[in-house]
Design a protein that fits this description.
five-stranded antiparallel beta sheet, disordered C terminus
Length: 229
């Protein structure tokens, strides 16, 4: 099983999935779900920030949209989710067909890089990933950003961390805090994040505790039960 991350960029203007995308008063944070149904329609789940009423009006006016729901996302007060059932248009219709045809798994979230580009991660056989990439329509440019083996346990470990914890961890790795020998201090991590070293230390302790707890839970089944005395 292989995993590959691609950057898809529209050659024809804004990258549209449902006919009309977010209005200027709404920022699309991520696409949490994208699926092709048996009847040829698609379903998406967006996480967005901004004016919900404007997004509702935009979706209501989009011809490909069959139905939609807007609901709370939690966290910040202006964040929300939009679940959209739509009739795919090109080139998105072809993309969804390729995912289905080559039995690929889309690994969410899909990230909006800007209004013309979407970052997508898929998992599947290497030959299937390559065949799907080769068949991407000319309306899109495709760039392979990363490829490797698919390790579900690694992704599950990342999922137990909050967005802020993942940011702190990624920064700590980037500046060399976890290098051997260590080439950065908590103060260096704090400077990169524009916060205090004490805050970084607290985040790192919680990160290590949560990750180690998950690893211990996963390995517990491998440890033989202690013999009764």
């Amino acid at each position: 099983m292989r995993r590959a991350r691609f950057l898809l960029r529209s050659r024809q203007g804004p990258f549209e999935l449902v006919g009309r995308e977010a209005p200027p008063s709404v920022d699309p944070d991520a696409l949490l779900h994208l699926d092709l149904l048996q009847d040829g329609t698609g379903v998406t789940l967006y996480r967005l920030t901004g004016d919900r009423a404007a997004m509702r009006e935009t979706l209501a006016a989009a011809d490909p949209v069959r139905s939609f729901d807007i609901f709370e996302a939690g966290g910040t007060t202006d964040a929300f989710h939009a679940r959209v059932h739509f009739q795919p248009t090109e080139p998105v219709a072809t993309l969804l067909s390729l995912v289905s045809e080559h039995r690929l798994t889309v690994d969410p979230p899909l990230e909006f890089v800007d209004e013309t580009a979407l970052r997508v991660t898929v998992a599947g056989k290497q030959s299937d990933i390559r065949a799907a990439a080769d068949a991407v329509p000319d309306a899109l440019s495709i760039t392979l950003e990363r490829a490797g083996r698919y390790h579900p346990s690694t992704d599950e470990l990342a999922s137990v961390l909050t967005d802020r914890q993942r940011q702190v961890l990624a920064t700590a790795v980037a500046v060399g805090y976890y290098d051997t020998p260590r080439t950065a201090t908590q103060a260096d991590v704090a400077e990169a994040l524009d916060c205090s070293a004490g805050t970084v230390g607290e985040h790192l302790r919680k990160i290590q505790a949560r990750v180690l707890r998950e690893v211990a839970e996963e390995d517990r089944a491998l440890v033989p039960a202690a013999a009764e005395t």
